[in-house]
Amino acid sequence: MYSLAKELIQTGLDAADAEKLTSQYVKETYIETPSEKQFFFEDYERVVLLGAGKAAPFMAQPFKKCPIDDGLIIADSRSKIVEKEIPVKVIRGSHPYPTEENIHATHTLIRKLEKNDGDTLFIFLISGGGSSLLCSPAGKISIDDLNELNRLLVSSGMDIHQINTVRKHVSKVKGGRLVEGLKGDIVTFILSDVVRDDLSMIASGPTVTDDTSFKAVIDILKEFSLWDKVPNSVSDYLSHCLIDKIEDKLDDNGSMNVLIGNNMVALQAMYEYALDTEFKPMILTSRNRGEAKEVAKLLAGIVEEIVDTKNPLSSPAALILGGEMTVSLDNAQGSRGGPNREFVLSAALELLNLDDVVICSVDSDGIDGVGRAGAIISPSSLRNKQPEAKEHLKKHDTETFFDEMDASITFDGTTNVNDISVILIR
Fold it and tell me: So what's the architecture of 263-425 in CATH?
């Protein structure tokens, strides 16, 4: 079952490959959209290709035979990319915490937007990770203050919608501001790593008009008890914008935003693969979200229900799901792990009494929080390791535990469509 679980995960990753998903819209002489609207390169004086995100360099590869005049891709420094396969310059930045290099890269990208007279086709490639890689803090917010804010956000247990609502309002380029007032035709290809595919939230929506408010940001920070913890430059800026009624929403910027892939693309491919096995597949959801340890309890209950009552289906069964789980880190220091590994370990601990169950979960970009992509385990293998497993889980140090068990999963990510999970029940 271990082999099958890994095959299912790989099938999902292959289906969601960023180059593959983008290539269906890119021809040598034009690009098209799902509505079959076509943009012929010869109709423009300049064609500019720009992008940011973990998957952006892979999304750029199908353009290598196109007549691109200028461009820039801001990529994660950890991405395993072959730069000669990418038709424009690549600048690497850090993730999840931006550095001065990210700001420099963003300003370099912005300067390329200034070189146009309206007879230009701008093609943007946006994927998850772009919130950190495409970085230009607003007001007097320093890079250190921005990183402290990001640290508080990602360890708070917020979902990505809440996190990116905050990020958009402390940035000069997010929430549609990147293309505000830009002349020319704008087409943005977007690969979703956000539950429910809200385009305004993916990479904080640099080309998508924002519909949230400064008041909403302050309310979110207060809800998670962060308002008194964020740097003064952040709270001062947000308060100033609220009091002075700074415009929250921009006019429609004219960008044609095209969703090219999401979590369901991966799950559907896994489902179809499983149909040719003895395991009856079921896609539970592509919208799984919440604290990983709590989600694990819910899934453990479903597994037990299948074993005991054959509901919602009988075994052998393959439960397939995806989404965006979170981890609240509290004051954990030096921990190495992520929501997928916490999910796997938590679910396994809930199911210790069951044999013939395998749990596997990964982050599709190849990095689950910190370190490895994910993990795979059979609950029965933990029966003699309960105290050790529980201690690692408590410390959010699941990578160390799974490495010692030889149960970590690693791969070089070529996409970013959230978490992918499968539970096999014989």
Answer: 3-Layer(aba) Sandwich (3.40)
Over residues 78-122, the pLDDT tens digits come to: 988 988 999 999 999 999 889 999 999 999 999 999 877 779 999
pTM here is 0.94
Q: Can you tell me the distance from the alpha carbon of 63 to that of 60, in angstroms, rounded to the nearest whole number? A: 6
DSSP calls for 41-79: GGGSSEEEEEEESSSHHHHHGGGGGS---EEEEEEETT-
CA atoms within 13 A on the CB side of 260: 32
Confidence bin at 15 (pLDDT 50/70/90): very high
Residue 421 near residue 343, CB atoms below 8 Å = yes
- For 18-261, the fitting CATH number among 3.40.50.10180, 3.40.190.10, 3.40.50.300, 2.60.34.10 is 3.40.50.10180
Q: 193-223: b or e for each residue (b if 16 or more CB lie within 10 Å)? A: bbbebebbbbbbbbbbbbebebeebbebbee
**Where along the chain do its domains lie?**
18-261, 263-425
Rounded (to 5) percent helix, strand, coil in the chain: 40, 20, 40
Beta-sheet pairing, 357-363 with 374-377: antiparallel
For residue 52, which of 6, 98, 4, 121 has the smallest C-alpha distance? 98
